[in-house]
Write a structure and sequence with these properties.
The protein is of the alpha+beta class. About 40% of the residues lie in helices and about 25% in strands. The chain starts with a strand and ends with a strand.
Length: about 325
């Protein structure tokens, strides 16, 4: 039996520049971190006592006799990609809901690949794992997704990720002091809006309008550079990070009318009135998780004023996808 654990991610700056349609010609850049909320994939060889050869349990239950019969696109394509020739039982658990802006689908794909390779007695580097997940989601399944979620899930940590060029992606950990890292985490508040939305539909719309949003996406890249400089080099401009998040949010929600709605806008403005310096809706938009940058002394008031939505405490994760259990006896 194999159990993989893969972290969800929070994207701070540069979202939208990680779509291949943009970065292959213009280059892309994001700043993101993974957090201590995880996707778990349990994978084992299915004993030969059943009328089916593959048993899959996620939000649905599937029984199949061939990999091609599997309905879940990521499971089917991952197993085909790694040439799985064993009968398998798969179980998926997660700390956070799907389609909520934290890269859940890509986190699952990375975690399944990690577990599948381990069951096949194969090893892949973090870089290879990220590229494999991107290949499966973008080209084999044809999903409207960028490339940052797979990369963040595979590598883990607080990073600047560059997209484009010969290597396609390049991950650079942001090296800051332990005190500044703790300070950054202490200024971040995560809330679940509870609204459902289809991230793929919103992302597809963003991809379609990319060519007409050059000015906005160039500005996203520049904000990313400025945010990195503030975090890594500046000793006095830390609070400006929150203000940059606010600037980016203004640009992001201007991209399409699918990004936000009146209820989300009211939540955001309530947080700003209560002391938040900035924030953003995570993921493609439309709902899910919303992040705020809030001085610690203002956070109790934020919790009171946003008591209608769920506050989710978190800390950063630096492990990336990994195998947490491996037994040949199960």
């Amino acid at each position: 039996m194999i159990i993989s654990r893969t972290p969800f991610r929070i994207s701070f700056f540069g979202g939208g520049t990680d779509y291949p349609v943009w970065y292959r010609e213009n280059g892309g850049r994001v700043i993101s971190t993974t957090i201590d909320k995880y996707c778990y994939v349990t994978l084992r060889v299915l004993p030969p006592f059943f009328k089916y050869k593959h048993l899959l349990r996620y939000f649905e239950r599937e029984e199949a006799n061939t990999i091609d019969e599997i309905k879940h696109p990521s499971i089917r394509e991952c197993l085909k990609y790694i040439n799985m020739n064993k009968n398998i039982e798969l179980v998926h658990h997660a700390d956070l809901p799907a389609q909520s802006g934290l890269g859940s689908s890509s986190t699952f794909t990375v975690g399944l690949l990690m577990a599948g390779y381990a069951l096949n007695n194969q090893m892949r580097t973090k870089n290879q794992l990220a590229h494999d997940a991107i290949e499966i989601e973008q080209r084999r399944i044809g999903e409207a997704v960028g490339s940052q979620d797979q990369t963040a899930a595979a590598f883990g940590g607080l990073n600047r990720i560059n997209f484009g060029g010969y290597r396609e992606l390049e991950v650079t950990p942001l090296t800051i002091s332990t005190e500044k890292m703790r300070n950054l985490q202490d200024h971040l508040m995560l809330f679940f809006t509870g609204f459902s939305r289809n991230a793929s539909d919103i992302a597809q719309k963003q991809i379609e309008i990319t060519s007409s949003k050059t000015k906005e996406l160039d500005f996203m890249v520049e904000l990313c550079k400025e945010a990195e400089e503030l975090l890594v080099s500046s000793e006095n401009g830390f609070l400006e990070w929150g203000e940059l998040l606010n600037e980016q949010w203004k640009v992001k929600k201007s991209m399409t009318n699918l990004i936000t709605n009146s209820k989300i806008d009211e939540m955001y403005e309530q947080a700003i009135r209560s002391g938040a310096l900035g924030g953003k809706l995570l993921g493609a938009g439309g709902g899910g998780f919303i992040l705020f940058f809030v001085p610690p002394e203002k956070q109790d008031q934020i919790k009171v004023n946003l008591s209608s939505i769920l506050h989710v405490p978190f800390r950063f994760d630096f492990s990336g996808s990994q195998i947490v259990y491996h037994s040949t006896n199960d």
